[in-house]
From TrEMBL:
Keywords: Amino-acid biosynthesis, Cytoplasm, NADP, Oxidoreductase, Proline biosynthesis
Protein's recorded name: Pyrroline-5-carboxylate reductase
Localisation per UniProt entry: Cytoplasm
Principal location listed in the UniProt entry: cytoplasm
EC number: 1.5.1.2
Keyword Glycosyltransferase: no
Length: 268
């Protein structure tokens, strides 16, 4: 229901890039935040922000408007967040909550730049724009955690993490995972080409197959799902054996996730 998230004041979205826009679109689509409760800070014009403005959101009002804010959502790049929040801090009221969707930036680091307010970290996927995202949530503060859940549960499958240290792994799996999936799709299409399909046909087959596989996955046991396709001694089993030869699939994904975790830690 529009405006059902009662954060104690307007929701301020700081940064309306790829993720900020996705979050904004998800809130409006799922009516999680009423447009009139939204303040968007963005140095440049963004289509998602303009659409929100048309429904009543405020874009770049005088910073005095932030004194009413219930939650400040930081969706800027990790490299610039300090310079972005410094001018905002003097306008925030005691009850405001800082919600960060920035990869890698830890709560203690955030507290150095914008200390004194409860912090909740959320790692969403851009699927929130269609109300079908994933979001990992962590906070040491119950009220802030509740606010993070209220803002993301309507548009994402959410997981509350017990320990902030797990956020880097959750980011490496979920925040980045869709990109791995697209890279896999591309590689599958290329492999189809290497086996004789023309590029356009291989692209259609790879995309359509993985789309329909993702649609059918649900919560079913993954080995059971594989078993429904791979008949014993059949061609899929031969392909799966090649994929897993000498543990290479597992090793490749271990290395992929570990590299992303390392980078998240460096950014923090
Ligand atoms: N794109 C993704 O799938 C995900 C991104 N993230 C995190 O979200 C954050 C943002 O990432 P993206 O949206 O991909 O980056 P982006 O570069 O698309 O967006 C950042 C936005 O911040 C704006 N900005 C710069 N200075 C500003 C200021 N002073 N005030 C307000 N806005 C300002 C820029 O105009 C830009 O639109 C990053 O910290 C990233 O780690 C987290 C999960 C997923
Ligand atoms: O690549 C990034 O830095 C962010 C983290 C998760 C998705 N995008």
């Amino acid at each position: 229901m529009a405006g059902s998230v009662r954060s104690g004041g307007p929701v301020v979205l700081v940064g309306c890039g790829r993720l900020g826009s996705a979050i904004l679109e998800g809130w409006l689509l799922t009516e999680t935040v009423a447009p009139a409760d939204l303040i968007i800070l963005s140095p440049s014009e963004k289509p998602a922000a303009e659409a929100a403005r048309a429904q009543g959101a405020r874009i770049n009002p005088p910073l005095e408007a932030l004194t009413e804010a219930g939650v400040i959502v930081l969706a800027v790049k990790p490299a610039i967040w300090r310079e972005v929040v410094t001018p905002l801090a003097p306008f925030l009221n005691d009850q405001a909550v800082i919600l960060s969707v920035m990869a890698g930036v830890t709560a203690p680091t955030l507290a150095e730049g914008i200390g004194g307010w409860p912090i909740v970290r959320v790692m969403p996927t851009t699927g929130v724009s269609r109300g079908r995202g994933v979001a990992s949530i962590w906070s040491a503060d119950d009220r802030a955690q509740g606010l993070g859940r209220a803002l993301f549960e309507p548009m994402a499958e959410t997981v509350v993490l017990a320990d902030e240290a797990l956020m880097d792994a959750a980011t490496a799996v979920a925040g980045s995972g869709a990109a791995y999936f697209y890279a896999f799709t591309e590689a599958l299409a290329r492999a189809g080409q290497a086996s004789g399909l023309d590029a356009a046909t291989a692209d259609v087959l790879a995309r359509a197959t993985l789309r329909s596989a993702a649609d059918s996955m649900g919560d079913d046991d993954l080995e059971a799902l594989i078993g429904r396709i791979a008949s014993p001694g059949g061609s899929t089993r031969a392909g799966l054996d090649a994929l897993a030869k000498d543990g290479r699939l597992t090793r490749m994904l271990d290395e992929t996730v570990a590299a992303a975790v390392r980078r998240n830690r460096e950014m923090g």
